[in-house]
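Quick one before lunch.
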Amino acid sequence: MEDSPEQRFDLSAARATALAAAREWGLELGDPFALSNVSYVAPAGHAVLKVAWEGDDESLHEGDALALWDGDGAVRLLRRSGRALLEERATPGDDLSALADDEATAIAVDLAIRLWRRVGSPFRPVTSEIPRWLDRAEREGSELVPLARELLVELDPGADWLVHGDFHHHNILRLGERFVAIDPKPYLADREYDLPAFLWSPMDNRMEDRAQTERRIAAFVATGLDDFRIRAWTVIRGAYLRPDYADQIRALLPTHHLPREH
Ligand SMILES: Nc1ncnc2c1ncn2[C@@H]1O[C@H](COP(=O)(O)OP(=O)(O)O)[C@@H](O)[C@H]1O
Ligand SMILES: [Mg+2]
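Model of the adenosine-5'-diphosphate complex:
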């Protein structure tokens, strides 16, 4: 599953796991962070304790990714026990959404380049998950699904890169003088897989500012990403994550890539 902003999950088991880990590690937890909806996340002094909702398969390797990045582009993993992760706390912790758009994008580009790594195990290829996510979206009436399936075949996606998996403005926080990523849903994929979540972020962005979307795409293309793959992945992920934005998302494709029947 991938989460949409509307969904809420039963976090009582995650909370119980967090409280047990806090007891074991002698930590006093503050009030949980308000923005969290698929995990129990609470500050503990200079650290943050996070336990993802147990049904959230996508965050399975969050700790492994944070450990691999080792503070370069993401918060450091301090300690782990099962699903409980103790992470470095980003302070002051304001996110990328407060910055001017071009500045935010430049920071995101710099971070993404650090996070994308050519690795393999234990991370999983995202291509094994996508047909299931598209099937569910189709049952829920997402009109982008047929086009998404065609583009998936055309792309023949790779699994060469570790991607963040939920790379958007609210998952990039200020830590001292720099910004770092939190909250990865790590998979092996094309690097371009990471762009859609950024393009429809922050939360109130309905992708209505086409010029802004194009500036963001261009900034990533300038680092070597493929322009068409960014647009195609936006259709594919948009089919299950942002079905309401179908028109804006489809409009990003070059016209010769719009099959007549859609
Ligand atoms: N390491 C951290 N440092 C500071 N704040 C954090 C940290 N991790 C999470 N938060 C806060 O908690 C919120 C939810 O955490 P996140 O890991 O994004 O969980 P979710 O999977 O629910 O989105 C974040 O939006 C942020 O406000
Ligand atoms: Mg988050």
